[in-house]
């Protein structure tokens, strides 16, 4: 009987046969190499008219740097960065023309998308010991090793980045609208009464930005005062035109102290929930429809009429529900004095809710309690990643009119204030 010497390699438990991923990775490697070459060629072309005394071109391509592995969202890609040389002989080193790739910076080892992934993995509760295993499952078995020391250094860098953000100068910033809320993460925080106090702002260009946040007590005016005072101390001199938020917060008292000129707009989503909680469940669908007649009215007068009708209809038997609504009538209808294109943004605190839906999703399965430091880092890094997808406000071209002091009646511009500053 003949014996065979053929050796069959069995698949290892951690390996996965995935030709599609390999094809995609090879294509990405080729595209990256082509993009780097095109970038270097374009740089050299900028200096085509720069020549040496003997007529040769001064700035030329000069081969490639050593091959290195870049960790990306589809795994590790081996690339070589093109080099460019300035051949001018008598030019000091500090005045040499130097090429720096915007696609692949000199010391880059990870893509920016992966930088957004790393804090999610770490801050979600994956231990340092399991970090490499998690990366390998996502990026493949060739994912470069990230030791506990590397991860610790990364979290230190995130902390430094957060500290710089907290100290940033706001003197050149202007926020026309702001939204405020106290966000409780589904992961536990210690002490449990605390939450993330969040302020989001809309710039004159209609972009939404995270203005500030800190751990604090949602109902505490002092907690909100500390946050608002810090924002103002860093240069935010012009008060927002209007602030949107839930009525059951200490935010409003602090706002009147720090930015007394800012108008109040109560969040209709929170208000509707509070009113419905004071009514039998069997009545809630009909009551919700009546409330919709108020906040969706075309004019302030129509909204006020609908609110009066609501009070007459339910006041005799459900006084608490009616009082909950009518006591904030002015703040609930403030949005009518702003452009109609902005009403959807101003009637609710949805900008914050939509932003932190991602944060809640990321923390829902976190084991144990989050420390304040970990919670702040997590919010900061996740919001930074989410900010890239935030949409501008509808009708952003109306914001300059609001800043100039144009008067809006039922969402329509009617006149310009004569001397708003006075």
If you had to describe this structure to a student in words, what would you say it looks like?
The chain has 422 residues and is an alpha/beta fold. It contains 15 helices and 13 strands. Strand 2 (68-72) and strand 3 form a beta hairpin. The relative contact order is 0.10.
Quaternary state reads single chain
The tally of strands reads 13
The secondary-structure class comes to alpha/beta
Q: Give the uncertain stretches in residue-range form.
A: 10-16, 362-369, 417-422
Topology of this structure?
Blueprint: H1 19-46, E1 59-64, E2 68-72, E3 75-79, E4 82-86, H2 112-123, H3 128-139, H4 148-166, E5 177-183, E6 188-189, E7 195-202, E8 208-216, H5 221-233, E9 242-245, H6 251-258, E10 263-266, H7 268-276, H8 284-295, H9 300-314, H10 319-326, H11 329-332, H12 343-346, H13 350-363, E11 369-370, H14 372-387, H15 399-404, E12 406-409, E13 412-416
Parallel strand pairs: 5-9, 6-11, 9-10
Antiparallel strand pairs: 1-4, 2-3, 5-7, 7-8, 12-13
Helix pairs in contact: 2-14, 5-6, 7-10, 8-9, 9-10, 13-14
């Amino acid at each position: 009987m003949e014996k065979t010497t053929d050796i069959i390699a069995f698949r290892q438990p951690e390996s996965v046969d995935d030709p599609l991923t390999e094809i995609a990775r090879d294509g990405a490697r080729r595209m990256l190499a082509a993009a780097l070459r095109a970038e270097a060629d374009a740089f050299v072309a900028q200096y085509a008219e720069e020549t040496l005394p003997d007529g040769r071109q001064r700035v030329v391509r000069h081969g490639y740097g050593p091959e290195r592995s870049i960790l990306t969202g589809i795994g590790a890609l081996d690339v070589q960065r093109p080099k460019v040389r300035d051949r001018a002989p008598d030019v000091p080193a500090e005045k040499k023309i130097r090429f720096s790739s915007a696609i692949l910076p000199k010391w880059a080892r990870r893509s920016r998308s992966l930088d957004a992934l790393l804090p999610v993995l770490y801050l979600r509760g994956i231990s340092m010991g399991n970090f490499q295993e998690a990366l390998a499952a996502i990026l493949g078995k060739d994912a470069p090793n990230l030791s506990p020391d590397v991860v610790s250094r990364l979290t230190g860098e995130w902390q430094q980045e957060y500290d710089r953000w907290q100290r940033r100068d706001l003197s050149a910033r202007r926020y026309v609208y702001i939204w405020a809320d106290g966000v409780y993460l589904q992961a536990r925080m210690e002490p449990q009464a605390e939450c993330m106090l969040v302020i989001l702002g809309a710039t004159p260009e209609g972009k939404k930005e995270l203005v500030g946040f800190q751990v604090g007590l949602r109902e505490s005016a002092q907690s909100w005062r500390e946050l608002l005072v810090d924002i103002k101390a860093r240069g935010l001199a012009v008060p927002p035109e209007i602030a949107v938020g839930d009525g059951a917060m200490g935010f409003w008292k602090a706002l009147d102290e720090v930015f007394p000129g800012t108008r109040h707009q109560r969040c209709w989503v929170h208000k509707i929930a509070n009113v419905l909680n004071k009514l039998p469940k069997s009545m809630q669908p009909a009551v919700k429809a009546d409330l919709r007649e108020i906040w969706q009215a075309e004019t302030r007068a129509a909204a006020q009429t609908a609110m009066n009708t609501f009070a007459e209809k339910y006041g005799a038997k459900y006084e608490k529900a009616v009082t909950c609504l009518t006591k904030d009538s002015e703040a609930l209808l403030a949005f009518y004095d702003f452009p109609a294109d902005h009403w959807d943004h101003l009637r609710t605190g949805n900008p914050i809710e939509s932003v932190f839906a991602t944060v809640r999703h990321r923390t829902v399965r976190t084991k144990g309690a989050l420390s304040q430091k970990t919670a702040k880092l997590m919010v900061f890094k996740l919001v930074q990643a989410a900010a890239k997808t935030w949409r501008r406000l509808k009708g952003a071209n109306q914001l300059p009119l609001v800043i100039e002091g144009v008067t809006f009646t039922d969402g329509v511009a009617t006149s310009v204030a004569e001397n708003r500053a006075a």
